[in-house]
Amino acid sequence: MQDTVDMADDPDYEEEEPSFSDPEDYEDDVDDEEMLEDILREKPLEADGIDSVVVVDNVPQVGPERLEKLKNVIHKIFSKFGKITTEFYPDADGLTKGYIFLEYAAPTQALEAVKNADGYKLDKQHTFRVNLFTDFDKYMTISDEWETPEKQPFKDFGNMRHWIEDPDCRDHYSVIYESGERTAIFSNDAKEPIVAEERARWTETYVRWSPKGTYLATFHQRGIALWGGEKFKQIQRFSHQGVSLIDFSPCERYAVTFSPLMDTKEDPQAIIIWDILTGQKKRGFHCESSAHWPIFKWSHDGKFFARMTPDTLSIYETPSMGLLDKKSLKITGIKDFSWSPGDNIIAFWVPEDKDIPARVTLMQLPSRLEIRVRNLFNVVDCKLHWQRNGDYLCVKVDRTPKGTQGVVTNFEIFRMREKQVPVDVVEMKEGIIAFAWEPNGSKFAVLHGEPPRISVSFYDVKNNGKIALMSDMNGALTFVDTSDCTMMNIAEHYMASDVEWDPTGRYVVTSVSWWSHKVDNAYWLWTFQGRLLQKNNKDRFCQLLWRPRPTTLLGVEEIKVIKKDLKKYSKIFEQKDRLSQSKASKELVDKRRTMMEEYHSYRETTQQMYQEQKSARLELRGGVDTDELDSNVDDWEEETIEFFINEEIIPIGDL
């Protein structure tokens, strides 16, 4: 210790610095990309400035007297995408040449100009074509020799709609339990659910079915996985770090995902639209909040999708993912919008502004023609509710009439299939809790009142221009036949947090989710008449979702024929139901079905063999075809034969 102190106090002593050099035999196998990945990601790309330049073609050719006006118009259009640092208008013989060069402050701004301004229609004679200056070099160096694209192997995922071919027409539903640790797919059966697939840690949060039931989406920290087919193989995956929400286009061609993680200004990552078939990213969007998910709403056929921002409604078209007509709609004060489920029509509403009344507008696309405008007064709020087929639109209008206190609710019913779209009004003075259309038809139900007394009213939109009140009732869990408003059953599921109807309307599930309550977690299966079939208790049950069915391929006339002959089919169904009442009956039915399938297989094989041996039979029988009893009827000879059968002698006696 003393030696150490003396050396430290010695003014001539120089402490030896530690060596940070690698040993002579050390081999550095870690590259910069692996060690400095986060830093290199922010490294500026090498550029010579031309990647910030765009070339605009089809610009009007003008002389010096109109050049300044043209520059102002061009600057107004293209400055929306970023700061323009340089403008160059080539000219010859006193006129501009019809194309210009614009340089932006950053390459990303130039790219944004190309995406949004290409195809911009200035007037009837001039439609802009916008390209990056660097693209010219790329296109000039394209080889003249054709290279055959590499053939991609076909991936067979099996029958993607196999569950629809179930002979007993059993629907699927997904169940998450054990607080998310296990996920199962069940076939719905009146006696007990049948497991179709079950996996541990299949998803990290929850699952979501696509609109037609083709895909099951599972959530993971790194992205989304889609599953389908008979064995639920992985069909596709989308890499989106921290993804928390998903939505599908109605046609199942596109998926939209959202991640709350920060994205860059140059490369939007908050919302991404994906092509489901190829797995390719179609376009990214910025998004600060997902409070009103889905951010994008789709048209019924998937050709358009729209997004609302302050005072603006942006409508995009597929597959280009660009703005319709290259511009958004300026709608001051727009509050909400919704697509028709049956037509390319958008409904939106705007609140009152000073002396201008609130209004609901119906707009047809892509023409942007306003087919109906409805003015409303003293409006507090509006909600848009489309009937499933798009035949009716209900606008729930909360109003505060002058001279009165409290809120009055009007239901404005737009008849979409009639000329000039007439509107019927239903007024209710009680507080409205919920509104819903029936799945198919013209009836709707309204929950109204204040707890603990909550009532439900049923209405029917008649063809004679009237809306009839069908019934007004209250109850905990009430099953009602709305054809005559008879109450079929009243039941209760204590603490039930969710109610889910199956796609056919034959069954309904009530459930207590672990996400809402930590006790009594289970789901109960009921018939549409209110008869309880099953109580399925699952440890820490979280979620049940029915698998949607695609739209039927049957036409209107074919459905009418089936409904007409429903009694004939009912006898078959009733017989099946009786056989399935017990497990023994089920085993017997399965055994008979197996025997019948074996018989059909044997019969088909034997018939095929019989046909193959026909030529040999003809040869053995001298060309006579004995397969048909009447095949050689012309060669027959008719002969009558009489023969003695019996003789009996009966004595009569004396008469």
From TrEMBL:
Pfam families registered for this protein in UniProt: eIF2A, RRM_1
Gene assigned in the entry: EIF3B
InterPro entries in the cross-refs: EIF3B, eIF3B_RRM, Nucleotide-bd_a/b_plait_sf, RBD_domain_sf, RRM_dom, TIF_beta_prop-like, WD40/YVTN_repeat-like_dom_sf
Chief location bin: cytoplasm
Region (Disordered): 1-31
Protein name: Eukaryotic translation initiation factor 3 subunit B
Occurrences of domain RRM (ranges): 52-135
PROSITE patterns, per database record: RRM (PS50102)
GO cellular component: eukaryotic 43S preinitiation complex; eukaryotic 48S preinitiation complex; eukaryotic translation initiation factor 3 complex
SMART domains in the cross-refs: RRM
High-level lineage: Eukaryota, Metazoa, Chordata, Craniata, Vertebrata
Source organism of the structure: Scophthalmus maximus (Turbot)
GO biological process terms on file: formation of cytoplasmic translation initiation complex
Cited function: RNA-binding component of the eukaryotic translation initiation factor 3 (eIF-3) complex, which is involved in protein synthesis of a specialized repertoire of mRNAs and, together with other initiation factors, stimulates binding of mRNA and methionyl-tRNAi to the 40S ribosome. The eIF-3 complex specifically targets and initiates translation of a subset of mRNAs involved in cell proliferation.
Keywords: Cytoplasm, Initiation factor, Protein biosynthesis, RNA-binding, WD repeat
Single GO term (MF): translation initiation factor binding
Assembly and binders: Component of the eukaryotic translation initiation factor 3 (eIF-3) complex, which is composed of 13 subunits: EIF3A, EIF3B, EIF3C, EIF3D, EIF3E, EIF3F, EIF3G, EIF3H, EIF3I, EIF3J, EIF3K, EIF3L and EIF3M.
